[in-house]
Specification:
By secondary structure, the chain is an all-alpha fold. About 65% of the residues lie in helices and about 0% in strands. It has one domain: Arp2/3 complex 21 kDa subunit ARPC3. The chain is globular. About 40% of the residues are buried.
Length: about 200
């Protein structure tokens, strides 16, 4: 199998427009479902939303992964309760809006890594997932720290100091991100192994 092939391409072969539409629809449903699953963990519960996004990117590739996340955000903007805790487009004005927008880049980056063969074995996939998860904090923190205030949003989470954002937006989620990176790596590497054994 070609090293620049994604898992979905290896399973389904060439993808027609209809297959791509069905994959996007299935991907958005998968992410929406995962966003509602909360796993007890310290210091905060862990949702499976970003795990699902990594899986979509790693299996669909960069373009189709990004398209799936754009469709997912559009569903939320239309009022569907697809975001974590049953939230919808209202979340675009809340403290996590930067993360929501960053999900598109997250899926694209995972797909890019998959297309270049970086996310095939366990170690490569785990390292890719960790780096990609870390990069999600860039738009995630840019929104409350810089952008929200400039757009007129007034809230207690707007334009605070770096200690505030570390305490409330980063530190509680690092362990969960590492766990999800390992799970994504296990699933993707397992998928490739099962496929090669056929």
């Amino acid at each position: 199998m070609s090293r620049d092939m994604t898992l979905s391409q290896a399973v389904t072969g060439s993808t027609s427009l209809l297959k791509q539409v069905l994959m996007v629809a299935g991907g958005t449903a998968f992410i929406a479902l995962a966003a509602q699953i909360s796993v007890p963990m310290l210091p905060v519960p862990m949702t499976l939303q970003t795990l699902a996004i990594l899986m979509v990117g790693f299996t669909f590739g960069a373009r189709l992964g990004a398209a799936t996340l754009i469709a997912y955000l559009a569903e939320g903007a239309m009022g569907l309760p697809v975001f974590a805790n049953g939230m919808n487009g209202i979340a675009f004005a809340g403290p996590t809006a930067g993360f929501l927008v960053g999900f598109v880049g997250m899926a694209w980056a995972a797909g890019w890594a998959a297309e270049r063969g970086l996310a095939r074995g366990f170690v490569g996939t785990a390292l890719s997932a960790i780096v990609i998860s870390a990069l999600l904090y860039v738009p995630g923190l840019a929104w409350p720290a810089l952008v929200a205030g400039a757009t007129g949003v007034e809230a207690g989470w707007v334009a605070q100091g770096s200690g505030f954002y570390w305490t409330w937006f980063v530190a509680p989620f690092l362990l969960g991100d590492a766990v999800k990176a390992v799970i994504a790596a296990l699933l993707v590497a397992g998928g490739w192994k099962a496929l090669s054994a056929r």
